[in-house]
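Raw record, unedited: NADPH-dependent 7-cyano-7-deazaguanine reductase
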Amino acid sequence: MMAKKSLQLGRAVEWPHTPEEAQLDRVPNPQKGTDYLVRFTVPEFTSLCPVTGQPDFAHLMIDYAPGPWLLESKSLKLYIASFRNHGAFHEDCTVMIGKRIASEIKPKWLRIGGYWYPRGGIPIDVFWQTGRVPKGLWVPEQGVAPYRGRG
């Protein structure tokens, strides 16, 4: 039998060094019979280019309709921070985060938008979702403007 992991909430924990070692925590959803949307905004996401080792920056928007679980925000902060020394392309980082969260909390629906700042003069936006939006769920626009530079 697997030992139950304890929540990181309310206690000091070490920063994870890699996304793989980071722990994502979940807590019971007290409104599990109600369809509603939760949004996490990550305006200062950083990772490393796997080729050059230079930093990459993104604005992430994570929206999900909870099922039986909610994503605990401190664990999300620690998970997101674990990418600071992780080398991966924009597409891999964005989809990896979405899949990991979906796997851990089993939401009714989840989407992630990765709005990456330009690298080599080209901004890259990456979008991933788990399936169809639950009927009747209000899903506001993510509200991140496309990159315009000085134009």
